[in-house]
């Protein structure tokens, strides 16, 4: 029994030694890796491409909002007209006008939902376009600077601290802007 326990302890020690030996080269490699970070939101807000994309989103939103505002005004006008006519209409005519108004209201609500979805789709499309530009610029900056890892300090990043000397935001933004006409 003592021999079995000694053999088990020996195996555990051998496994620990193997793990330590395997981990040592990985630690040595990690020390030689170059890392940096960016602020992708700042790049979106301040780069030429980011500003252009945000401007396109705003223009698209404004055009959709104009349609919604026009239909909303038509609906309000119809409601006002209907309110003025109610006392003059027969019961059947009133019900018919109320059904007509309800149908218009439902059409309006459906249109608002459709336009909202269109806006969301456009945002995704344009942000995907920006992310492609960002990815290309990151690739160039990483290769030129010899970076092994570049983190985004915002969003869902695991980066909780980054010294300002490793901030590549301005380099990436310059790369994106240089690629713009």
Jot down its keywords.
181 residues; mainly alpha; 2 domains; 5 helices
Summarize the structure.
With 181 residues, the chain is mostly helical. The chain has helices at 2-31, 40-46, 48-85, 91-145, 169-178, and strands spanning 35-38, 149-152.
Tell me the series of helices and strands, N- to C-terminal.
HEHHHEH
Instruction: Write down the Rg.
Output: 31 Å
Count of DSSP H/I helices: 5
Helix content: over 70%
Task: Decide which structural class fits the backbone.
Answer: mainly alpha
Total domains: 2
Shape: rod-shaped
* Quaternary organization: single chain
Termini separation? 80 Å
**Biggest sheet overview:** 2 strands, parallel
Residue stretches low in confidence (pLDDT < 50, at least 5 long) are: 1-29
Strand content: under 5%
How many strand elements? 2
Average of per-residue pLDDT values:
81
User: What strand order characterises the main sheet?
Assistant: 1-2
Characterization of the model:
It is a single chain. The protein is mainly α. The protein has two domains: 1-32; 33-178. The chain has helices at residues 2-31, 40-46, 48-85, 91-145, 169-178; strands at 35-38, 149-152. The protein has a two-stranded parallel sheet. Helix 4 packs across helix 5 (169-178). The longest helix has 55 residues, at 91-145. The N and C termini lie far apart (80 Å). The model is unreliable at 1-29 (pLDDT under 50).
Write the layout of secondary structure elements.
Blueprint: H1 2-31, E1 35-38, H2 40-46, H3 48-85, H4 91-145, E2 149-152, H5 169-178
Parallel strand pairs: 1-2
Helix pairs in contact: 2-3, 2-5, 3-4, 4-5
